[in-house]
Amino acid sequence: MLIEAVLGDITTQGVDVVVNAANSSLLGGGGVDGAIHAAAGPELLAACRELRRTTLPDGLSVGDAVATPGFRLPARWVVHTVGPNRHRGQTDPVLLASCFARPLELAVGLSASSVAFPAVSAGVYGWAVDDVARVAVGTVRAWQEGTTAPGSGPEGVALVRFVLFSSAALDAFRAELDRA
């Protein structure tokens, strides 16, 4: 499995799965969430409203993930995950790691071979990008080795791409990827 980091716009990635740094309501927001909702079109909001009406009436929990179609995105699927918000006291790196492991587990179930992640919880959720990079890369590598949970592993996922919003974020992720 190839793991890479690029500077770019996650909404333009030609991958099977784009991971959305969503809020628990799943009804759109700012940053990556707002950009993905805008690019995917109103069908994405309708699909998220249906999830809230049926299986997720209380919203999506921090660290969990759920999939919807990608609609107008190049990606076939959007996997929404809710990152921990340091400003609300959510400082457990295990919750952050789950935001990278759960989407990979769902990607396997979707028969996806490529997944693009943003820097979940960096930015307005208050996590330092260096910490996010360390947790994200470590989690993906552990998942690749099949050590994150029984039955997990990289079945069929050939590419994990971190799509970063700034040069500083790109540098942080590349530094982690360069570590042995």
Automatic annotation (TrEMBL):
This is O-acetyl-ADP-ribose deacetylase. SUPFAM superfamilies: Macro domain-like (SSF52949). NCBIfam families: PRK00431.1-6. Residues 1-180 form the Macro domain. It comes from Cellulomonas terrae. It comes from the Bacteria. InterPro entries: Macro_dom, Macro_dom-like.
